[in-house]
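Retro notes (design track)

What went well: tokenization of the new backbones is finally stable.
What didn't: we kept losing track of which sequence belonged to which structure.
Fix going forward: every design gets posted as structure first, then sequence, in one message. First example under the new rule, 357 residues:
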């Protein structure tokens, strides 16, 4: 049988010992619920987490809860947060003798890597051996509407994740609205939409937080700096507000942050890195330094260290990308970006059982 249509990006999985506990639910929190549970995907990015539980999910229901921030206007407006004094921090150094532009040779994708040029005829996923682990997957789907003909439901059904994070759903007709939805078989204690410290119009449906008994799950489709870096000021405002928000959550309980981060960490995470430095929206000194501060725990006075669990488990990997442009046969040529990830509070990073693209 011929394979189905090829999605335009790849996916990532990560497995953790479960820190999100709860019972199953079938409630819907947004108008996107019907299409979210029945559509397939145009563009898949990273899949993520299996977690080992503090409490097993209720098996009485297989229907997911759907938590979607598609109308930022419905969330109200938060007051601007004051800018705190920063702790001393390390600058992101991309090369041993330069604090800015990388000078190492450009890295290219390993031709043996599965670049997903065709949808496989059959799908199967291994489960971690840890009993009661929870799997969370994250996909950038470009839009729910366009995903219907791209075969995403085959992936979702084959993997049977406990939680699915869908970014860039684009179910709002207003120009520029991104949309973020989370489908969960584990009932959260609370769902929060938007980002404190920013006008909710500015977040454009880019963030949803689920509060569980022992953790927070934060799904994002992060703000980009735009073509020609024209919206860098908006990106910097997002970075500042998001750093404060993560620090506030992490002070209460561990955080699992996943989705489309719209940032590459260093030159290992994109093809032809030196040509794109300070020119491409996801790869600038300002953005890389801000991301480095988040990971180091120096972004705010109360920030704690965070861990990119994919990079922790694959420290030397090169050419493993989660996004490929549609121009110029980028996927088949291995010209991609590693824009999506799972970032965990350092104190629970050891619970990660696996993290795969």
């Amino acid at each position: 049988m011929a394979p189905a249509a090829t999605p335009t990006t790849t996916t990532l999985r990560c497995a953790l010992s479960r820190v999100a506990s709860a019972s199953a639910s079938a409630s819907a929190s947004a108008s996107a619920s019907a299409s979210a549970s029945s559509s397939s995907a145009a563009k898949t990015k990273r899949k993520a987490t299996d977690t080992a539980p503090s409490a097993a999910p209720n098996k009485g229901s297989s229907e997911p809860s759907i938590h979607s921030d598609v109308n930022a206007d419905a969330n109200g407006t938060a007051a601007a947060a004051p800018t705190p004094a920063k702790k001393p921090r390390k600058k992101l150094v991309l090369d041993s003798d330069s604090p800015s532009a990388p000078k190492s040779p450009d890295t290219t994708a390993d031709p043996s890597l599965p670049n997903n040029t065709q949808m496989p005829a059959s799908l199967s996923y291994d489960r971690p051996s840890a009993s009661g682990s929870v799997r969370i997957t994250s996909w950038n789907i470009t839009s729910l509407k366009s995903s219907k003909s791209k075969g995403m439901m085959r992936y979702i059904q084959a993997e049977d994740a406990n939680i699915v994070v869908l970014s860039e759903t684009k179910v709002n007709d207003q120009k520029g609205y991104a949309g973020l939805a989370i489908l969960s078989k584990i009932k959260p204690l609370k769902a929060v939409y938007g980002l404190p410290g920013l006008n909710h119009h500015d977040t454009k449906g880019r963030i949803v937080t689920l509060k569980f008994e022992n953790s927070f799950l934060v799904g994002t489709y992060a703000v980009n700096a735009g073509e020609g870096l024209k919206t860098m000021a908006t990106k910097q405002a997002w970075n500042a507000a998001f750093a404060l928000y993560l620090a506030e959550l992490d002070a209460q309980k561990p955080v699992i942050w996943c989705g489309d981060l719209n940032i590459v960490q260093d030159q290992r995470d994109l093809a032809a890195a030196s040509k794109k430095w300070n020119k491409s929206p996801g790869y600038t000194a300002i953005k890389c330094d801000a991301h480095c501060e988040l990971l180091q725990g120096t972004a705010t006075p109360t920030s704690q260290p965070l861990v990119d669990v994919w990079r922790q488990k694959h420290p030397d990997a090169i050419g493993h990308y989660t996004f490929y442009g549609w121009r110029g046969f980028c996927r088949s040529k291995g010209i991609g970006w590693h824009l999506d990830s799972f970032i965990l509070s350092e104190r629970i990073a050891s619970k990660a059982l696996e993290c795969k693209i």
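Added context from the reviewer: The longest helix spans residues 232-252.
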